Amino acid sequence: MIPEEILKKVRRIDIRTSHIVNDVLAGQYESVFKGQGMEFEEVREYQSGDEVRSIDWNVTARMGRPFLKKFVEERELTVMLVLDASSSSKFGSIKQLKGELAAELCAVLAFSAIKNNDKVGLIIFTDRIEKYVPPKKGRRHVLRVISEALSFQPEGRGTDIAVALEYLNRVTIRRTVTFLISDFIAIDYEKPLRIANKRHDIIAVTITDPRELELPKVGILELEDAETDEKILVDTNIRRVREEYHRIALDRVQERERILRSTNVDAIDVFTDKPYIEPLLKFFRMRERRL
User: Fold this and answer.
1) Which end of the chain, N or C, is surrounded by fewer C-beta atoms within 10 Å?
2) pTM (2 decimals)?
3) 95: β partners
């Protein structure tokens, strides 16, 4: 039984994202994400102008006149949402928590998928696999996916992207479009990401809060690592302290970008203090130009 509070949040997200899915992203999802190939539709009698290479010689021999096989593009896809639920996702300094933003992004992507009759699945991870929802179609299923993304209480606290990607490869048979939604504050995931992206179409959705990049000048602050409980006092009035914090943050971002480039993984960069529509549109436009 889903708590009423969670149901209300799901309804709000549903209403808020419906405009984005139906008006802003309409058509772009389908044009960017193609099917996995061609599938057989029917055998029909040969007509003038048809491709000779499509003739079904077995049927032609039996019937005494030419028939050919007709194929159509296999449109149906499987979309996997791989969601980071580590303790750092509970951070947010301005508009919303990173985890809340991640759940809303899951909603937009999932509703876009079912609008095109694709299946949607969910993997929630921390430093372990927390939850797996097998891919299915339908609005009711997507509402369950959003509810899990919003309300699931993980046991782990850390972030292990490698574990999530290895699990993805185990539970999926066919190629998927996989959105890996995380703040990417993690280590040792370059090789697993490269391997997974050869089998699937991996898109990294990076979520960042502005306070993770820069400290405000507000005096002495106690900073706590949400995943390790490590605490440190810093004097933000000291310019050198703020500059060093910013430098370390930029190094982390640049290393993440290097890994994504080296593994040929596309990225959608979203921030908790900015609308996410433009980064999504930028991604779809980039994919369209590439196609």
Assistant:
1) N
2) 0.83
3) none
State pLDDT tens for residues 92-133: 888 889 999 999 999 999 999 998 889 999 999 999 999 999
d(CA 195, CA 49): 44
Is 52 buried (19+), middle (13-18) or exposed (0-12) by CB count in 10 A?
Answer: exposed
For β-strands 231-235 and 220-224, DSSP reports them as antiparallel
- SS3 label, residue 254: helix
Q: What are phi and psi of 204, to 5 degrees?
A: -85, 125
Architecture of domain 4-31+75-290: 3-Layer(aba) Sandwich (3.40)
The 10s digit of each residue's pLDDT in 196-232 is 999 999 999 999 999 999 999 999 988 888 888 888 8
* Domain ranges in the chain with CATH number 3.40.50.410: 4-31+75-290
